[in-house]
Batch of 4 targets.
Target 1
Amino acid sequence: MAHLQVTTSAAKPLVPVPNRECKLGAKSSEFGGVAFVHHNTRNLSQACKNQAIQAVLASDKETDASSGTKERGLRGKLNKVVLAYSGGLDTSVIVPWLRENYGCEVVCFTADVGQGISELEGLEAKAKASGACQLVVKDLTEEFVKDYVFPCLRAGAVYERKYLLGTSMARPVIAKAMVDVAKEVGADAVAHGCTGKGNDQVRFELTFFALNPDLQVVAPWREWDITGREDAIEYAKKHNVPVPVTKKSIYSRDRNLWHLSHEGDILEDPANEPKKDMYMMSVDPEDAPDKPEYLEIGIVSGIPVSINGIELSPATLLSQLNDIGGRHGIGRIDMVENRLVGMKSRGVYETPGGTILAAACRELESLTLDREAIQFKDIMALKYAELVYAGRWFDPLRESMDAFMENITKTTSGSVTLKLYKGSVIVASRKSPFSLYREDISSFESGQIYDQADAAGFIKLYGLPMRVRAMLEKELGKN
């Protein structure tokens, strides 16, 4: 897991992070009293990781907080707040707002869940300019796919017939990491920049409640007087916070390794067709290659493990399928959904790799699960998706349902070959050593296991209730 840690100190501008045992390409840079230490620590031992954390905590003890964080704020007093931080306008403004209103130090936290390197660039300078005392960045991509995406995939969880839960799955892994960071840095509160109209506020806060009910939660959008972008810019100028110079998108987007969502602007009218240039992960199916591409997806116990016979880590496998599916225009979804807070919203989603994997898992289950198992699994999948959408990832019910999904798919192993062509995913073949399909039984030719004459008695017994009802209606009609 990769960390980027930032601390502010007037007396000691550099963080004394001992790195003698962590020789994996560490480097440091300094911005006017704020030291930034980058650790490529994906393969670090736990002892080395704890050493880095202890060094940051030690430096915190030596740090004198600015005078603005010593006093009670306008709304109360908190010691230290961990803020879900993106570096955009909203979160840049939240940093000084928290300091002013709660008299606290602010630790900015950014999670890498595969949103792209461009969204992680320049965070050091932005955090320092906003007044944060520390920045922590963690690479959660493998954890996100392995522990959140793949369980949902195995369950067949789809919300309201279409949505593959991209944002819904990402929020609990980010919130869990925030709870961990709060413990590491000694914070007594967490904060997020979600609006009071959306689902994400619920997803973050239910995770906080489940994992550490003692943490206070601050949601500025439910408290402050800022009503839009212009108000935020004015607040930033008043508090000497540089306004991010990135171009404002006309769409509200959320991206991670599983999907990319688009909302807002012309999409707010369900009658409007999305513009062709809005899409970012996939080409227009009309512009996709004229030649189809075949893929073999290997699956073990309901979990994808390989592409064309090559075993890959969860995040790498998904990333490669995003590239492959994207160039064939796979995985575009346009839907009107029911938000948890009650209103309807229109969103467009791109999930190229996820659409391929969902098709592969579903097709393999057609071989390995019997009728009753498939029907009951589908029923449970609806509730599973609803719980994930509603932010109840750490609810005992979802965890118990996941145990069922793990057990019911233990024989869902094998491979599925799919044909990708101009936006469509077509199954070409399915193979499993646990297949319940028997050619000697299913064949139209006569066999020893299935005697066609037996069907007559079966039909009479199966249709007996319908026959009795018809007899009754006939008698009543005579009378």
Note: The chain has a mean pLDDT of 87.
Target 2
Amino acid sequence: MMAATVVKMMSQSNGFQSKKKEDADNKDNLWSSILAEVQNSGNNKLPSYKNVLVLGDNESGKTTLIAKLQGVEDPKKGSGLEFAYIDVRDDYRDDQTRLAVWVLDGDPGHTNLLRYALNAERFPHTLVMLVAAMTSPWAILEQLQSWAAILGDHIDKLSLDNDTRQQCRQLNVKKWQEYSEPGDELDPGSPLRRTSRNLDEEAVDGLPLPEGVLTTNLGLDVVVVITKTDYMTTLEKEHDFRDEHFDFMQQWVRRFCLQYGAGLFYTSVKEDKNCDLLYKYLTHRIYSLPFRTPALVVEKDAVLIPAGWDNMKKISILHENLQTMKPDSYYRDIIAQPQVNRKAVAREVEVQAEEEQVFLARQQAALTCLKDPTRSPTTRNQASTGPVIQVASPNKKLDPKSAGGTPGGEGVLANFFNSLLYKKSGATPGSPGAPGSPGSVGSSPAKLEITSPDAGPVDKAAMRNDAAAELDRLTRMKKVPPPDLNSSSEC
């Protein structure tokens, strides 16, 4: 009995130890599961090292578009290489991050700044937006090709190892091949589901790309954005654009997008078209957030084509609307730039403001000159209806040559009436009290009364005496040397 009791106690002890060990194992498993969950949630967080590089000509709407994606109403335009960020939020996982945005100036002289925005380290984590504006439709294709060439040259200069370059290119091919219509991923049995979705990854990688797709694979995710599509109405009214012109433009742009494996968005910040969808598409391509909007090709000013949807067969549908032009015609021959009115441009001459002191000096000279054409109409009327009475200023003497050599004897008449003025005032010419002499400054001038022809005859004897006195005075003044005509005091 003693032995049975000992065995029973030993079995209970062993059971207790095994239970304790099991609890310890469960506790360890619990902590392991918590740590694994935290680790998995950390891996699922939105990364903070993603970038968007925006390229395009000046006035293409790059800054305004990014401000719209940011939710900023008053964008501030800079120069060179601008940096901004877009707040990105994942409502499903209650997570948020910031997407870095680099906007390069449209001046080709600033392309050397690309090395700061796109280097070997950022290359696998960068999406590129090529932007062109509908306000200059004749230059859209040329601008896109130019910036794509600049981007390609910059990538070739990066110190990327071959493995990284090939992985990025294969990822572009895989994204294109794995595109499915929105809703297919929710319904595996959908008849619209692409055949490649039912194959394994190796089979998908082995499928050839459609015609014209990714013939230039940069290894970067590319999105083409045509801005200011609200200007299409102006093109129709002022430049006689028709629907076939816009279809011709669209089919060329879509061919370009196939070449680089890019998505296409027609946007208008003014009318708020496709801006929100562009934001969702960017977060879908960069962070793999859901994007369930299908391709939109019905509205000519709100086209939306995700990368992977388009092909040459779908583009050929636009060819049916081209009645007066051929699809393969040279782009600039069909979408030609309007002629500039050179006469209107010639009128826009820059006006230089005259210096204030020069202007005032010129006006002073004009006011002091008696024969200046800027005299008041009253003075001109008096000059045309009667003789001009010239009274010498205190600081200026009359030029005897100019006084006697004026046409029609106006100088003689002026001196004659001056003599009458001296006679009426009771002073002799040149005396301190005579009008026009230095001593007469501040004194009230004598009143000169001239009888008009209708009022009666003038005293002829007095006129003869005054004329004789005036002739004697002129004879004496001939002996005086004439003043300097180059003096600043002369008009």
Note: The first strand starts at residue 51 and ends at 56.
Target 3
Amino acid sequence: MEASCGDTHGVEVREIGGSKGKGLFALCKFSAGETIFEERPLVCSQFLWNQAYGYLACDYCMRPLETAEENARRLSSNHQLVLPYPQCCNTKKENHVDCSQCEVSYCSVACRSLAWEQYHQFLCLGSSTGDSSHPLEQLQVAWRNVHYPPETASIMLIARMIATVKQAKDKEGAVHLFSQFCHNTVNEEEQIAHKLLGERFQVQLEQLRELLSKALFEECIYHWFTPEGFRSLIALVGTNGQGVGTSPLSVWTKNCDALDLPTEEKQHLNEFIDHLYEEVDKETGPFLNNEGSGLYPLQSSCNHSCVPNAEATFPYSNFVLVMEAVKDIEPGEEIVVCYLDDCNRHRSRHSRIKLLRENYLFTCTCPKCESEVNDPDMTSEEEMSEDNEETSNDTV
């Protein structure tokens, strides 16, 4: 459903001041379920571990490159599986193309051209693909060694930012596009440092910085390659990167749900789908999607609340973000989203605040957190154990 007063004309970014800085506000009413705006990212990148485990996505827009049947076979480890209603799969393999100089794959000629025009000229490995001595190959290996799954950011998001500036005719304008994102490494008011920048990560971060400089140094953004500048970039993608997930199987399932079938046939299909997801869960757990992250200027203006009135969705199974109202939003009301995933948003106030401080550099004071201010810091032995595990984890 389209927004009642236009895709982006119904919202406005306003300066708030204080720790929030800025926020996104509604200029008209949005009803629950209504689209507030749609947005494409400035840059987007699939997570390196996700890619390494065989999750095939367009290198530009993250549209799935597997058919739903191929995806279901891989996720369930059942290579004889046959999905009914193949017409419900949206993957168009006949449109897929590779970079003419390297092994990178795209869902269409259009995506290949857009990637080449924006950043891929400086990231294309050409005949060096698979050469372990190439700085970009070393950079990716180094990142995988310091940031195990599940990833929350990507060094290649930074690489694409740099390559975008290097290829831009208006380099100053390109830098300005990225300057709109918050990149503070420390919240001095609350004395919070981003978790990726702690002492135990300094050697790893310096290795990444050196490899990035060797691969992509650009004089006009030399400050990005300094130790402090690189720390800012890490904080930028850590605090602003919006997770992106696409799945050919989920699209097939959604299209199957929309089929007009006789009652008995519909029941049989639903039973088949339920059983399939049970088998996938046994083999793969929750890791069903092609996963990555992107930088979205409008989305990044949305502040956090543990009781959000909007959420980011990806209904087109690519990197196009659709912000959807989950509650009625009145004119003048701030549009707020939850930075935590479904699992973590239902944890205790103590755990939510700990995660938000480590990852986003603020202490949440939303209505839910304020109402639970007198709750115990630790709600269970299980959460204490989880927090101890997080503290002892030495990966970025």
Note: The first helix runs from residue 48 to 52.
Target 4
Amino acid sequence: MVAVSGEYALEEPMSPAGRLFHTRGFNCFVIAVVGSSEVVDVDRVKIGLQQSLLKHPRFSSVMEGDDGKGGRRRWVRTAVNLDNHIVVPGIDPDMDSPDEFVEDYVSELTRSSMDTSIPLWELHLLKLKTKNANSIGIFKIHHSIGDGTSLMSLILASTRKISDPDALPSIPKAKKSGNGRGHRTGLGGVLFGIWWGLTLLWNTLVDMVLFVMTVLFLKDTDTPIKGKPGVEFNPKRIVYREFSLDDVKLVKNATKATINDVILGMTQAGVSQYLNRKYSADGEKADGASGNNLPENIRLRANVLVNIRQSAGIEDLAEMMERNSKVKWGNKIAYVLIPFKITIPEDPLDYVRQAKAIIDMKKHSLEAIATYRIGKLLLDLFGIKFAAELMHRVLSNTTLSFSNVVGPAEGISFYGHPLTFIAPTVCGHPHGLTVHFQSYVDKMMLVVNVDESVIPDPHRLCDDIVESLNLIKQAL
């Protein structure tokens, strides 16, 4: 048993977003699959967890209370028995299809609920050699503990560089894009500032009108990849593909875009190719060679959950676990709706150009802050159930969830186990398709998470997205 000590309060109220993730129809949890080049040493992992992750209050607290009759959920510190959280299944290391076994194992985890009488996290350790690892670790963490970015950052704060076992991982920081106002002076600067402010207000107004319309009635086209009502309760199939980050950077530099622009463009391309096949007469063509079979004016949008809290850095989280120092934690999230252009253009580079135009407009909008403020206001006025219904309607009326997470720039180890890949995703929300990208060293991992009753061939969709990057690269 691991005792609880330190400066943290023994009882803390659960944040509004944390409470939301315990409402019916929005019981979300994070799944993160990691591979190691070494056979896992279970005892070493347990010692490492005791010395780091368990010092975080959310990993050593249970949820108590409820939101009914004026009650309020809260976190209460408790002793942690690692045997309740570390699962080491007995498996045949010489099985014929280890990768398929891991895929099935992860799918089973999406079926099971979490035991609320203990802290809401699990770590499954599989001593199994797959095509890209010699053992597998699978984290399952309830979303009420924290948003996806914070949870991944916390896990990375428990790792160290392979080249320097005492050093924390290096996470590339995104360059801040300038708005162009700093180099303009005089009347030109004043006029540009006015134009900049007006376009910011206009973009925000358009985004908020579309957001309100989505809450009320605006639904995406009912395509073969859109989930049906109740999709959030169905088990999920999670598949992933590794591809070259250098290829993404090549396209980025050639098109003067960003990595986000490129991966959004390749996702649009892959989804377009997949749908084009579904709408074709024979259903066999893997590309646009047979022509454009897509219906006109498909409305298809991705929902991006944005963490608007300034996330604690890797160093801050590591210090927190070592010294119980306080850093801001929890879920402080907002919505951004990204429209996908579903088409088969003659020039594959159009996918990147379209993605760049959309993201540039979203960057010059206060949509995320506005949706967060509206959600918080409605929660304060009408309660958690009303806010949960609003969020549920927004996701139900769109088609997929999308995210991109920047990972370590060089190899890292998890309690002495060198990692070969990191593949995170989220389950429990009302989408039949979720697409995540996770970078690690010079590789990018694409993670596709589907309801198989909606998308029965997720490997084909995965291939379409990765192959689309090759088509875009060749078009250069």
Note: The mean pLDDT is 87.
